[in-house]
């Protein structure tokens, strides 16, 4: 027998340091996350503060950023960490993506020196949590339509509007909020507790239950000019952050798929149907072979994109290709594995249905599959079909 990753000699694509990082993250997930994650999912309650500190000591928060207490690791190492976290649960990878690739990255890339010193070391350590408010109730795929405004009043800014579906919202110490100004879209750092800033959690989720999702309400929130991110002007500011988080998902989705496939292979070996192991039937083996192929192709694509990112040549369209393919295939793998587990596949005793419903969110956030198809369509034809 051979594991799905060994089939593709996946480890030969990685350096010793990358394998070591992957193994360390896996060990911490096995010890600190996997024993509890089904319960967090079932109750819809995540010990986010505690987890942030665990993940901070592990060094994965903003691990691909340089300086300010961040580990400065390569893109593939970051991707492998996302893979291991998402093999535990997409909600955990979300916490890390939003903290490191959206909130911290926005401050690291566009922030003033004072903002970086104030927030980044504490966020890398997991002592402070951040969120990223781009989506609004009426503008998800089309953030250019945002209604949240920031107006200058004397030396201050006053923000009004609502952000929706914001990961880490109610557990955050700081929200990176994108708003329309007379100078186009600008980013602001809104500390928790600022008068006029309230946060309400989204309840009754069936997907990504081991993750905090919130609404951010800004009602006359007054901020000093020092809260403005000086380096971001226009929609390219927030969209530049999305490239970072989407890249992590290219690897992360394959982690969820791998966990499903390994579970299904073990189950099919143990489960007897019609007096023989489920694994011994040709229909089962075809399913397993097809899933291993898609998993292997997705992993190869992820490492290829990681090497392009490390070389500094990756394009947003290539990130879209990876996000579109790997999330779509991960979801197919999760659904197919669910069929192999029969009725057992619908319980939280196994991780498969949890991954499957989580991946429905992953398919939608960070750009829906339709938006990424349109990004590729535009790249291939030169015609933008979004509008
Ligand atoms: P468009 O006119 O094409 O572009 C406006 C400006 O932005 C630039 N740009 C990008 N820059 C960097 N990276 C990218 N990927 C970029 N895409 C576009 C573009 O060059 C232009 O710059 P400039 O200087 O000329 O002004 O914009 P559009 O309004 O036509 O929209 C394009 C579209 C639809 C692709 C974009 O709006 C989009 O990506 N929509 C999807 C929105 C989205 O993904 N939201 C995610 C919110 S965050 C989230 O979901 C977190 S989930 C939690 C977790 O990660 O775990
Ligand atoms: P819509 O944009 O209304 O799309 C509805 C449908 O229309 C989709 O199928 C879409 O693909 C399709 N569609 C849209 N435009 C077109 C078009 N031009 N052509 C064809 N079809 C189209 N956002 C943040 O800012 N920060 C976060 O931290 C964050 N976390 C999230 C966590 C979770 C669990 C979820 C579910 C979402 C999160 N989001 C976050 C929001 C996420 O980015 C949006 O849900 C996503 O961008 C889609 O927006 P929407 O839900 O408004 O769908």
UniProtKB/TrEMBL annotation:
Its EC number is 1.3.8.6. The lineage of its organism: Bacteria, Bacillati, Actinomycetota, Actinomycetes, Streptosporangiales. The keyword Transit peptide applies. Residues 233-380 form the Acyl-CoA dehydrogenase/oxidase C-terminal domain. Its cofactor is FAD. Residues 131-221 form the Acyl-CoA oxidase/dehydrogenase middle domain. Keywords: FAD, Flavoprotein, Oxidoreductase, Transit peptide. It comes from Nonomuraea jabiensis. GO terms for biological process: fatty acid beta-oxidation using acyl-CoA dehydrogenase; fatty-acyl-CoA biosynthetic process. One of its GO terms (molecular function) is glutaryl-CoA dehydrogenase activity. This is Glutaryl-CoA dehydrogenase. Belongs to the acyl-CoA dehydrogenase family.
């Amino acid at each position: 027998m051979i594991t799905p990753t060994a089939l593709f000699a996946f480890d030969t694509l990685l350096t010793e340091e990358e394998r070591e990082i992957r193994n360390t993250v896996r060990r911490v997930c096995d010890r600190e996350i996997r024993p509890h994650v089904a319960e967090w999912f079932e109750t819809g309650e995540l010990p986010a503060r505690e987890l942030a500190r665990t993940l901070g000591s592990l060094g994965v928060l903003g691990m691909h950023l340089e300086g300010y207490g961040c580990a400065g690791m390569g893109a593939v190492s970051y991707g492998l960490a996302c893979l291991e976290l998402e093999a535990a649960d997409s909600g955990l990878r979300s916490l890390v993506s939003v903290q490191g690739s959206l909130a911290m990255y926005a401050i690291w890339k566009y922030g003033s020196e004072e903002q970086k010193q104030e927030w980044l070391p504490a966020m890398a350590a997991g002592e402070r949590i951040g969120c990223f408010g781009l989506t609004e109730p009426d503008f998800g795929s089309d953030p250019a339509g945002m209604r949240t405004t920031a107006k200058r009043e004397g030396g201050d800014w006053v923000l009004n509007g609502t952000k929706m579906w914001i990961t880490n919202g109610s557990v955050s110490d700081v929200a990176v909020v994108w708003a329309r100004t007379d100078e186009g879209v600008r980013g602001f750092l809104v500390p928790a507790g600022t008068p006029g800033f309230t946060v309400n959690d989204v309840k009754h989720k069936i997907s990504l239950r081991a993750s905090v999702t919130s609404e951010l309400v800004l009602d006359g929130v007054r901020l000093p000019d020092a809260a403005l991110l000086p380096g971001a002007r226009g929609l390219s500011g927030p969209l530049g952050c999305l490239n970072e988080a989407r890249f992590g998902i290219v690897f992360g989705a394959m982690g969820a798929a791998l966990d499903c496939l390994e579970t299904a292979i073990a189950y099919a070996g143990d489960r007897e149907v019609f007096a023989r192991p489920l694994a011994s039937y040709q229909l089962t083996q075809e399913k397993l072979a097809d899933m291993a192929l898609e998993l292997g192709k997705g992993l190869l694509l992820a490492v290829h994109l990681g090497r392009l990112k490390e070389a500094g040549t990756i394009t947003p369209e290539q990130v879209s290709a990876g996000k579109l393919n790997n999330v779509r295939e991960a979801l197919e793998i999760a659904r197919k594995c669910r069929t192999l587990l029969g009725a057992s596949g619908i319980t939280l005793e196994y991780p498969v249905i949890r991954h499957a419903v989580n991946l429905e969110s992953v398919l939608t956030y960070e750009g829906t599959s339709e938006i990424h198809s349109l990004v590729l369509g535009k790249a291939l034809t030169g015609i933008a079909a979004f509008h």
